[in-house]
Design goal:
The chain has 13 helices and 7 strands. It is of the alpha+beta class. It folds into 2 domains: about 10-185, no CATH class; about 220-275, no CATH class. The strands form 2 sheets. Strands 6-5-4-3-7 form a 5-stranded antiparallel β-sheet. A two-stranded parallel sheet has the order 1-2. Helix 3 packs across helix 4 (about 65-80) and helix 10 (about 205-220) packs antiparallel against helix 11. The longest helix has 18 residues, at about 185-200.
């Protein structure tokens, strides 16, 4: 059987946990699920052009704050990129091609764009998988700088991060070292996909949700809930052959789950329907 990710070589590298998977290519491969005619090279070229404009303004060996300031100027002043606070749950905010075209997005996609530009300038930024928000960071210890691309690239210290999250959740928050730690590409991609999963399932757009849930289940094979959700979606879309293995994995992992008695008859129905079609 042909891999569902045959057209996503960078995503496959992530699944193999190769150390240097390219996050921006993965984001564009995900976007191509919704926009099949998307030209990856065209968008990589647009990002390279933005990086070149920043590079022209930074002297060799410029300090991180200087580079970050110039990225902020190009992205948020000259180009007018901004966080989409008015329509946060528009699925286009989670597709990097649309973020670049529309110059608006959510924290995680704006962070992917921002970090990619910085990397092209020799400045390695890491994602920070915060509750209710996503940021970037550079540096260590007391010299760590946190960057909030959703809010114009604001440069924050630890206390600034806590104030930002406190504002978002409406109560005081103290962030742990683990919450502020750099996160890997797998966590970034999973968070991006879960944003789309939530949006599409809430709007009952099951065809659009299918490639998202396929990627999530592949990325998190040890998460039984992702397997269950993929199986149930495949049943909803009348794809019984695909609706067997994922829920079976769920039941194998969590035989006493509260919804196990509801999942079992659906699994049996998928097996019967598959047998009838063969």
């Amino acid at each position: 059987m042909r891999s569902p990710f045959a057209e996503s070589p960078e995503f496959q590298r992530l699944l193999r946990r190769e150390s240097r998977s390219d996050l921006v290519r993965i984001a564009l491969e995900i976007a191509r699920d919704a926009y099949p005619d998307l030209d990856l090279d065209q968008y990589l070229g647009k990002i390279a052009a933005l990086a070149d404009r920043v590079r022209d303004r930074c002297a060799a060996g410029a300090k991180p704050r200087t580079v970050l300031g110039q990225i902020n100027w190009v992205l948020f002043v000259e180009e007018g990129f901004q966080g989409n606070a008015e329509d946060y749950y528009d699925p286009r905010n989670s597709y990097l091609n649309q973020v670049i075209d529309r110059k608006t997005g959510i924290p995680i996609t704006l962070s992917v764009l921002y970090a990619t530009i910085a990397a092209r300038l020799g400045l390695a930024l890491a994602g920070v998988n915060l509750p209710a928000h996503f940021m970037l960071r550079v540096g260590t210890g007391n010299a760590t700088i946190f960057i909030d691309p959703f809010h114009g690239g604001a440069l924050l210290d630890r206390e600034g991060c806590e104030r930002r999250i406190s504002q978002l959740v409406g109560q005081p928050v103290t962030l742990s070292e683990l919450q502020l730690a750099p996160c890997g590409h797998d966590l970034v991609v999973a968070r991006l996909l879960r944003n789309l999963k939530t949006i599409y399932l809430e709007h009952h757009d099951y065809p659009a949700a299918l490639p998202v849930l396929r990627r999530l289940a592949a990325l998190n094979p040890g998460d039984p809930h992702e397997q269950r959700d993929l199986g149930m979606l495949c049943l909803q879309l009348d794809r019984p052959a695909e609706a067997i293995e994922p829920p079976q994995s769920y039941l194998d992992a969590l035989p006493q789950a509260q919804d196990a008695d509801a999942v079992r008859p659906l699994l049996r129905a998928a097996r019967r329907e598959t047998a009838l079609r063969n």
